[in-house]
Design brief:
mainly alpha, 13 helices, 2 strands
Length: 346
C-alpha cells in the first residue's frame, strides 16, 4: 500500500499547485491504474465469435419464449438502450416475483472477473444459463429450452449456421454460448475518460480531473481499477463502517453463499463503475438512487472517510466521464411460432 500512498499524494499535491507538469503526473497515474475499453469486442475462450453466432445470440437475448411465461427475456432485466440494466431495485421475474439483488449491467461485463454479485458464474457463458433456470426469474429447464427452440421452425437453420458441422446444434450449451458471444459485443468505448488515458488531456474538464485526483488519493482505486474501473476483484461491503440494514441486509451474506467460507461473509464482487451515471439504483440491494449519496456511503463504509460535499460533487463529475458510446443494436425479427410450438406455462 505504501507505494500507492506516495504516488497518490503526489498527484493531489501537484494538481493543487496548478503547474503544467502536475497534469502530466495525474495522467500518468491514471494510465497506470486504468485501461481504456477497446473498440472491438474481445474474443471468448473456447467460444469462437462469428457473425452468425452473434446474430443468433442477439435473437436469443431478446427471445421471451425462452421463459416459462413467454414474457421475460434477457433484455427484460438488462435492457439495451437503458445502460444494460432495468432501473429497478430488484428485477421482476416469473409470476411477479422479485429477485433478491439488483441486476448488474450487462455492458462491459465481459471484462469482469466473474458474473453476478457473488461471482457464482465464472464467465458470460455460465451466467447466460442462470436466469433461464432460476424459478424466480425465467423458470424453465434445460430440456424445455431445447424443446421450445426446436418447436420454432425458424431456429433450426440459425443454429446450423452458428454451429456448423454439428449433427444436433440446438442444445442448452449452444444457447449459452451464443448469448455469451452477443453479450461480449455490448461494450462502451470512447468515454471521455478513455480518451483522457489515451493522452487527450482536454477530454476531462477541470472538475473531472479534480474528481479523478480525489478518487485516487482517497483510496477508491484500491478496488476500482483496471479496464472496468472495478469488476476485477471481491471485497467486503462495510470495511470501515457497515451501512444500515436496508443497504446491507444481514440475511444476504454475499459470496459466502457460494464458498461457505466465513471470511466471505458480506463480500461481493466489486462492481464496475463504467456508465455508472446511467445505472441507478446502486449497490446489490438497489436501495440508493442518488449517485452522490452512493459516493458518500462508499467513502464512509469502505474508506472510513467523511467526504465533504465538494469532494462528493467532484468525484461524481469524474464518474460521469466513464459513460462511453452505448451499443447500437438493431432489434431482431424473431422466428414465428407455429401451431405445435410449446405454449406458455399457465
Amino acid at each position: 500500500m505504501r507505494p500507492m500512498t506516495i504516488v497518490t499524494l503526489t498527484a493531489v499535491g501537484c494538481l493543487a499547485m496548478g503547474q503544467a507538469w502536475s497534469q502530466t503526473a495525474l495522467m500518468k497515474q491514471a494510465q497506470g491504474l486504468f485501461k481504456p475499453i477497446p473498440v472491438i469486442a474481445p474474443p471468448l475462450s473456447d467460444n469462437a465469435t462469428t457473425p452468425a453466432k452473434v446474430e443468433l445470440g442477439k435473437m436469443l437475448y431478446f427471445e421471451p419464449r425462452l421463459s416459462a411465461s413467454h414474457s421475460i427475456s434477457c433484455n427484460s432485466c438488462h435492457m439495451i438502450g437503458m445502460g444494460g440494466v432495468d432501473l429497478q431495485e430488484t428485477s421482476l421475474g416469473h409470476r411477479w416475483q422479485h429477485g433478491a439483488r439488483n441486476a448488474p449491467t450487462v455492458y462491459n461485463a465481459v471484462f469482469d472477473v466473474a458474473q453476478f454479485w457473488d461471482g457464482r458464474a465464472k464467465d458470460l457463458e455460465q451466467q447466460a444459463g442462470g436466469p433461464l433456470l432460476n424459478p424466480i426469474e425465467m423458470d424453465t429447464t434445460e430440456a424445455h429450452v431445447v424443446e421450445q427452440l426446436k418447436g420454432i421452425p425458424g431456429y433450426a437453420a440459425l443454429f446450423a449456421k452458428a454451429f456448423p458441422g454439428v449433427t444436433d446444434p440446438i442444445t442448452f450449451d449452444n444457447v449459452r454460448k451464443a448469448i455469451a458471444v452477443f453479450e461480449a459485443t455490448l461494450i462502451t468505448p470512447n468515454a471521455p475518460f478513455d480518451r483522457y488515458i489515451k493522452g487527450d488531456e482536454k477530454a476531462l474538464d477541470a472538475k473531472q480531473k479534480e474528481g479523478l485526483a480525489l478518487f485516487i488519493s482517497k483510496g477508491c482505486t484500491t478496488c476500482h481499477n483496471g479496464i472496468n474501473v472495478g469488476g476485477g476483484m471481491y471485497a467486503p461491503f462495510g470495511v470501515m463502517e457497515r451501512p444500515g440494514a436496508d443497504i446491507l441486509p444481514p440475511g444476504d451474506k454475499g459470496r459466502f453463499e457460494v464458498t461457505k467460507t466465513a471470511s466471505d461473509e458480506y463480500v461481493f464482487r466489486v462492481p464496475s463503475l463504467r456508465n455508472i451515471a446511467l445505472t441507478a439504483p446502486y449497490f446489490h440491494t438497489g436501495k440508493v438512487w442518488d449517485l452522490r449519496q452512493a459516493v458518500a456511503i462508499m467513502g464512509s463504509s469502505q474508506l472510513g472517510a467523511k467526504l465533504t460535499d465538494d469532494e462528493v460533487i467532484k468525484i461524481e463529475a469524474f464518474l460521469e466521464s466513464l459513460t462511453g458510446d452505448q451499443p447500437k443494436v438493431i432489434l431482431p425479427i424473431l422466428p414465428a411460432s407455429v401451431a405445435t410450438t410449446p405454449r406458455p406455462k399457465p
